Amino acid sequence: MSFALILPFLRPIERFILDDDISEVMVNASGRIFVERLGELAEVPGLTLDGKHLDIAVKNIARLLGDDISEAKPILDARLPDGSRVAAILAPCSVGGTTLTIRKFSKRQFSVEDLVGGGSMTREIAERLLAAVEGKKNFLISGGTGTGKTTLLNALLGAISDQERIILIEDTAEIQLCKPNLVRFESRRAGADLPEVPIRDLIKASLRHRPDRIIVGEVRGGEAFDLLQALNTGHAGSVSTIHANSAVDALTRFAHCVLQSGIGLPYASIRGQIGESLDLVVQIERRQGRRLVTEVVLVAGFDYGSDDFEMHTIYRLSADLGGSGTCLPGSLPPKRGHVSVGKRQPASAFGRSA
Prior knowledge:
Blueprint: H1 14-18, E1 22-27, E2 32-37, E3 40-48, H2 51-64, E4 75-79, E5 85-89, E6 99-103, H3 112-117, H4 123-134, E7 139-143, H5 149-157, E8 166-170, E9 182-186, H6 199-206, E10 213-216, H7 223-231, E11 239-243, H8 247-259, H9 267-277, E12 280-287, E13 290-303, E14 308-316, E15 326-327
Parallel strand pairs: 7-11, 7-12, 8-9, 8-10, 10-11
Antiparallel strand pairs: 1-2, 1-6, 2-3, 4-5, 5-6, 12-13, 13-14, 14-15
Helix pairs in contact: 6-7, 7-8, 8-9
């Protein structure tokens, strides 16, 4: 058990770390303890963790995991063998004392049926998303931290045919995908004796391993350019996640991530390539402890005249959780100037072929 490594240093909060209903355990600099249980954030009453004890515990955990946290390097971002994350910041960068957050790796793999049954999305929109995966559409799943982007991605990837060769690239191996021709790459942070292996290098290398699909766990920076190049060279059906507050923001953030690569392309050109390469953006949010698909947008292209993406909303969930989502029958219009390359399918209806 992965947590057995760190429990000796965190006995006062052991029961919360081992509770399967709790997804995150947070210890603030004040010593107050908060947990997220089944999507709801709450303080643990009557329990605090002594600052000196927490400081020693964090330093021991870092050492045990082959990392370091000290006055010279006050930030820890470590991973347990099961994928759970241990993050900490020491004082004075964390005002008042050490702050610790443990984000637990979910052992349960949710299916599309689970997400529909739990109310995360309607059956109709689930069918459309599965059809997008089967139809080799390129899309992004966007949302904030802890909204369930990886969970949704994991569920949808099950629709990929067993005959396809999938290359899955992640910072931390979180996606639980069982396919016969699956190749997994994981980035590596720089260590004392080993250089960094970034996501960018892994995406470039993946092209030499005959992928049918390239799945990137999350786009955060310059790797967006390398993913965009893959989308533009016939690798249809590629999917990634990105942090954004809306579907429109997701495309803008993706463009900003491409700029971080330093390739020097004009911003309008980058946005144009994104408009021609991506077919779909799925927005997921957390509302009142529930993770919900709130918007699905078709990307039709980029209009250089108006300097804006051509987008068509096919689903939007009302702000009132008691209300229902609006699901439109939209289709995916042909992309202006787009030439089908390699296996990329002609942009037609977003749905199952007749």
